[in-house]
């Protein structure tokens, strides 16, 4: 019997998945068996004799336990009061800055004169410093991802719209930042300090985040924060660190719809969107990351640890995908996309741009995911980085294999989307899974993105860059993966629930329930909010450019500048 080439590819892919799923997960049980078979240590004769020979006074002295040292105030800060030390604009109340000189005449500390308390203050200050630098540097990487988005979206669009597409990717940064500063941060993180945590938790960036302690709730379920509008009253170094990192995250969500709505979005309507997008994003972010009702689902309803999203598969990507879907439906397809109701390919103008942008995004994603630890002293960041890398490469590989197995060419732009889909999918579970699971998650996401792109094309949603598929579908899948593949090795007291985060494969079906609830919520809330917004904003400024402008290209009529003026015939 002759076997077709697609069938051979499918068999090979199936075999690869089986090997990854079952073979890599096999481990010899030597260490555990040795631990179980080990006999309890026998008591030495010397130790047996020492107890009866001990004097009564010495026995009493041994029974007395030393008193636990008092914890410095910066490890359990309290906001308010006449002697409140926070907000702390300079960071001087978080331990003591260590100076290396041992010569007092040079203004340094004398190491021999330092008490244990003095050393603790310096160690704690360095701890906060390391974490702060880590979060800021990771935030720099996330901010640089905007260049990657611009290249990917600009390359996948036509040359006549290049200036407009690149300009949207640039201006969404200042527009979104202004909105986040004005109201977004307060809504999302205004009550961050009161989020459910474990008994030994401390703020990794410093005690100043204690001032983010006001919010609105209904029946004990958190809805939004209410403190920090325009950063008023929260002038603290720790708060500024958190603000910066969370702002560049929101910018990712804000730029996702610019890809779906590219080549026909009116500039004025886009600007209004940039000032609005912080509202749905920060509300949902509060529910997951700000101690809101989805984070409380573990404590309140027994659903695992509540919704767990380490770096934003749902908060950032699924929310962006839901908004993009609403925008794509309201704005409608591009002229020429459908002929006799059949989708037509509209090639982008620069595939090398797309590949370069994808590499920039993959590079920035290490900061995106690992930085979400909010702690450079959390050594789990190495696991996060490796899982992020594995999901990206298996996403690209599985996308290529699937296209070739089904008779398609290995389209470079689609392989780029496969890599990005793998990154999106692993973003939520990256800290909680084994490496084999990361590879499998990326491989599945790389296939899902191809299927999803063709699905949206068939149902009439024109998405020039595949943003809904990469971010919306990939983010939803990744959110569910926490509830499936979380291995119970990390995440103790996450959202205030005892024990590590564990998925259904390792015994906790409730976690999958919490993740499913988050997926339903982000799509229902994000899509409905965006759909209403796009409909209403269309009355203020038209959401779509006139037909003649779209045919000519948006660069000249909308922006007054051509991306490629040499292409214009004179």
Describe the structure.
The chain is an all-alpha fold and 570 residues long. Helix content is 58%, strand content 2%. The chain has helices at residues 5-23, 30-37, 45-53, 56-63, 116-156, 162-189, 237-260, 267-276, 278-289, 297-301, 313-331, 351-370, 381-405, 412-426, 435-458, 467-485, 509-540, 547-552, 555-559, and strands at 215-218, 221-225, 338-339, 342-343. The chain has a two-stranded antiparallel sheet with strand order 1-2. The protein has a two-stranded antiparallel ribbon with strand order 3-4. β3 and β4 (342-343) form a beta hairpin. α9 runs antiparallel to α17. It starts with a helix and ends in an 11-residue tail after the last helix. The relative contact order is 0.12.
The CATH architecture assignment turns out to be Orthogonal Bundle
Low-confidence stretches: 14-55
Side by side, the strands of the main sheet go 1-2
Please report which band the strand proportion falls in: under 5%, 5-15%, 15-25%, 25-35%, 35-45% or over 45%. Answer: under 5%
Distance between the termini: 62 Å
The structural domain count equals: 1
CATH classification class: Mainly Alpha
Q: Return Rg in Å.
A: 27 Å
CATH topology title: Ammonium transporter fold
User: Could you give a short account of the major beta sheet?
Assistant: 2 strands, antiparallel
Run of helices and strands: HHHHHHEEHHHHHEEHHHHHHHH
Task: State the share of residues found in helices, binned by percent.
Answer: 55-70%
User: In CATH, what is the homologous superfamily?
Assistant: Ammonium transporter AmtB like domains
């Amino acid at each position: 019997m002759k076997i077709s080439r697609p069938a051979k590819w499918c068999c090979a892919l199936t075999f690869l998945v089986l090997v990854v799923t079952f073979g890599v997960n096999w481990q010899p049980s030597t260490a555990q068996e040795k631990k179980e078979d080990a006999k309890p240590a026998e008591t030495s004769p010397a130790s047996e004799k020492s107890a009866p020979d001990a004097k009564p006074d010495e026995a009493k002295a041994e029974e007395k336990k030393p008193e636990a040292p008092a914890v410095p105030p910066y490890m359990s800060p309290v906001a308010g009061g006449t002697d409140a030390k926070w907000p702390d604009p300079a960071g001087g109340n978080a331990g003591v800055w260590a100076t290396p000189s041992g010569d007092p005449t040079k203004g340094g500390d004398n190491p021999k004169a330092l008490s244990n308390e003095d050393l603790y203050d310096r160690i704690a200050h360095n701890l906060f410093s390391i974490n702060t630098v880590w979060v800021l540097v990771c935030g720099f990487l996330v901010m640089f991802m905007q260049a990657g988005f611009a290249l990917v979206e600009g390359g996948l669009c036509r040359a006549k719209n290049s200036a407009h597409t690149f300009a949207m990717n640039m201006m969404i940064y200042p527009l979104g930042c202004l909105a986040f500063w004005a109201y977004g941060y307060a809504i999302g993180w205004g009550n961050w300090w009161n989020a459910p945590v474990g008994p030994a938790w401390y703020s990794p960036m410093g005690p100043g985040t204690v001032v983010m302690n006001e919010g609105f709730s209904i029946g004990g379920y958190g809805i939004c924060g209410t403190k920090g509008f325009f950063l008023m009253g929260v002038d603290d170094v720790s708060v500024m660190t958190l603000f910066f990192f969370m702002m560049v995250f929101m910018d990712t969500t804000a730029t996702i719809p610019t890809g779906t709505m590219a080549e026909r979005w009116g500039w004025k309507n886009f600007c209004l969107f940039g000032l609005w997008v912080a509202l749905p994003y920060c509300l949902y972010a509060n529910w997951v990351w700000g101690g809101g009702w989805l984070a409380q689902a573990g404590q309140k309803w027994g659903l695992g640890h509540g919704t767990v999203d380490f770096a934003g598969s749902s908060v950032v990507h699924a929310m962006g995908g839901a908004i993009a879907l609403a925008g794509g439906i309201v704005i409608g397809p591009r002229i020429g996309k459908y002929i006799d109701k059949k989708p037509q390919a509209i090639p982008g103008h620069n595939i090398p741009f797309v590949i370069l942008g994808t590499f920039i995004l993959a590079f920035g994603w290490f900061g995106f995911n690992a930085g979400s630890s909010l702690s450079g002293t959390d050594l789990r960041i190495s696991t996060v980085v490796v899982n992020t890398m594995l999901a990206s490469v298996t996403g690209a590989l599985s996308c290529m294999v699937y296209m070739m197995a089904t008779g398609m060419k290995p389209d470079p732009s689609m392989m780029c989307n496969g890599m990005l889909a793998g990154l999106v999918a692993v973003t939520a579970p990256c800290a909680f899974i084994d490496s084999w699971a990361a590879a499998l998650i990326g491989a599945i996401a790389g296939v899902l993105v191809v299927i999803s792109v063709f699905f949206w094309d068939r149902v009439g949603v024109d998405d020039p860059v595949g943003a809904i598929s990469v971010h919306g579908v990939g983010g939803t899948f990744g959110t569910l993966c926490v509830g499936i593949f979380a291995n119970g090795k990390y995440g103790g007291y996450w959202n205030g629930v005892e024990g590590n985060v564990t998925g259904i494969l390792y015994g906790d079906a409730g976690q999958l329930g919490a993740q499913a609830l988050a997926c339903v919520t982000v799509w229902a809330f994000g899509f409905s909010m965006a759909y209403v917004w796009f409909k209403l904003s269309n009355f203020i400024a038209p959401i779509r450019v006139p037909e003649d402008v779209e045919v000519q290209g948006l660069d000249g009529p909308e922006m007054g500048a051509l991306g490629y003026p040499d292409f214009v015939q004179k």
